[in-house]
Each structure stands twice: as structure tokens, then as C-alpha cells.
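Problem 12. The chain below contains 204 residues. Write out its predicted structure in C-alpha cell notation.
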Amino acid sequence: QEESFAAVARQYSILGIKHILEGWDHLLFLICLMLVAGIGKKLWITITGFTIAHSITLALSALDVVRLPIPPVEAVIALSVVYLAVEIALQKKDSLTYRYPIAVSSSFGLLHGFGFAAVLSDIGLPQIEVVTSLLFFNVGVELGQIIFVLGILLLWLFIRKISFDKNLNSKFKFKRVTLEKSVAYFCGCLASFWMIERLYGFLL
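Solution.
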């Protein structure tokens, strides 16, 4: 049966959304980026850098222009979460990560793109409408990413509304930092387990 543009676009958009929302390592990386960049303009600049970077490597890898072994890439993706979690836990606001989060998101975004490409390779590209499938898989990933980020922002605003006393600035700051560090420890511990597991899988 001949593949139509609309059918391929719809199918691969859904696959992209499904993949990002099921990819916990990518989601934890996004959460950490949000904690580093905050909820203002810097967040969207940081997310845009991540998007552009992983879109480039996704396309290059899917089209066989550049190829990297997937197991080490997956291990480094987990490491990217560990790195950000440590930065958040340390709370060094003058560090490179906090001052230029787009540099970190773009650098690690290149590796995340290879991870997305590995999933797309497992799914397979159609014989016709190859560019369409690649484009809309990426569109789906971005839509899923936006849905997730907006969901986390709404959750954060809700928690801040019900938990923080704005009349006590020191209390507000203490609770905010405590919450950020708690999330960082959770993300860092889980990502460390994944990293060790993935390293064990291809080194031993």
C-alpha cells in the first residue's frame, strides 16, 4: 500500500510524542534544565538550544550521515542528568551551568539526538516519505516536550501557591532550595543507576 504524506506525518508525530513522554532519562534532563534556567525567558532559550541540537543529530544519524555506537551514547545521556543534578544540589549560581544553561543544553542535546535516532531506527523509516517521517517524528518529540514542560510549570506554580508563604521571604527561599535539592537528588540517584547499568551492559 502506498504511503501518503498525511498518514506518515500523523503516524510519526504520534510516535515522537509517545517516545519523549516514555523516555524518562530525557524527561529528567528537562526537569533539571528547568531548575537551572528558572521559569522565565531563559528557560525557553535553554529549551530551544536543546531542541535545535538534538534535531541536528537526530537528522544526521537517521540519514546515516553520522553514526555513533548507541550503548555509550545512552550511558552519557544518563550522565548528562547526573551532571545537572550535581550542579543543582551544589547551588553554585555563578557556575557556567547557571550562567549559560543554553551551552549545557545544546552540548548534551547533541547526544540526546543520537538517542532519539536509535529509537527511530528501531521503528524504521518508510520507503517513501523518508523526509516526512523524520520531520514529523521530530515534531512529535517537540510537541511532547512542550506538553511535559508546561505540565511541570503548572505543577510548580500549584506547589508554590499552596506551600510557600510569600510574607516570609526567608522561609520561601528555604523551601524553594530544599525542594530543588530534593528533586536533584532524586534525578541524580536514578540517573546514576541507569548510567552504571548501561556501562555494565557494554563494558562487561
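Discussion. The chain has a mean pLDDT of 87. Students who got a different answer should revisit the alignment rule from Section 12.3.
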